[in-house]
């Protein structure tokens, strides 16, 4: 008998979306528990007592937290449609870029979104520098994973989802065709891939959410 599989997520958070995409790409059935992060369920707190964040994947009653860790678990548990390459060195390279996406790209884009004036400008510079590295990594490839969507595509997939929302809310451009032709093309192709496209939060709802968030950050700085 298949063990029960449950994903704790929210409708909009980019981290659980990684898990949604990976499970769908592998054709794994699961149940969803939608959390209200302003009022976290006792189960979420029990399953992720340290970070208290989504996503949490619960497999046969056992919880796994942290989206990149969960992705690795999924990859090791269900071998079909592999997301990581076979070669150990290439696997390490993929993990490097996934971590770079969180440590550097995400942090710089957060800096752009949460600040204004000089700090935002610094954030833009840092984001462009980081995005340049991703542009380089895409040379000669359709996806970061090669011909098919892989681990790195899923890990940095939030870029295709959220950057244009952030650009619209903040009123600036980061990923343009002129600056980043490959990344720009990747954004469109990744977003258009059926499984990604079908599991994308509605843009108008995201814009409204991020507009409200942005106003909160800006009013704190006045
Ligand atoms: N490093 C974590 C980040 C997860 C994360 O930041 N989740 C946010 C939603 S976007 C959350 O649950 N926040 C609740 C909180 O901080 O209280 C991962 O990759 O899973």
From TrEMBL:
The gene is LOC103483384. The keyword Disulfide bond does not apply. Belongs to the GST superfamily. PROSITE patterns: GST_CTER, GST_NTER. Gene3D superfamilies: 1.20.1050.10, Glutaredoxin. Its EC number is 2.5.1.18. GO terms for cellular component: cytoplasm. This is glutathione transferase.
């Amino acid at each position: 008998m298949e063990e029960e599989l449950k994903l704790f997520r929210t409708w909009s958070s980019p981290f659980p979306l990684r898990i949604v995409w990976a499970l769908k790409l592998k054709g794994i059935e699961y149940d969803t528990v939608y959390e209200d992060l302003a009022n976290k369920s006792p189960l979420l707190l029990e399953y992720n007592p340290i970070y208290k964040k989504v996503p949490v994947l619960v497999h046969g009653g056992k919880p796994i937290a942290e989206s990149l860790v969960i992705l690795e678990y999924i990859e090791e548990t269900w071998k079909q449609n592999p997301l990581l390459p076979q070669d150990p060195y290439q696997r390490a390279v993929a993990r490097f870029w996934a971590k770079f996406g969180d440590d550097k790209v995400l942090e710089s884009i957060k800096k752009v979104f949460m600040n204004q004036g000089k700090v935002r400008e610094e954030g833009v510079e840092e984001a462009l520098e980081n995005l340049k590295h991703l542009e380089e990594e895409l040379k000669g490839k359709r996806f970061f994973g090669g011909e098919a969507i892989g681990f790195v595509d899923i890990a940095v997939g939030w870029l295709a989802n959220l950057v244009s929302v952030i650009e619209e809310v903040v009123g600036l451009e980061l990923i343009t065709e002129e600056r980043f032709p490959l990344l720009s093309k990747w954004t469109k192709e990744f977003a258009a891939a059926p499984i990604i496209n079908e599991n994308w939060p509605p843009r108008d709802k995201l814009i409204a959410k991020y507009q409200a968030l942005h106003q909160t950050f800006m009013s704190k700085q006045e």
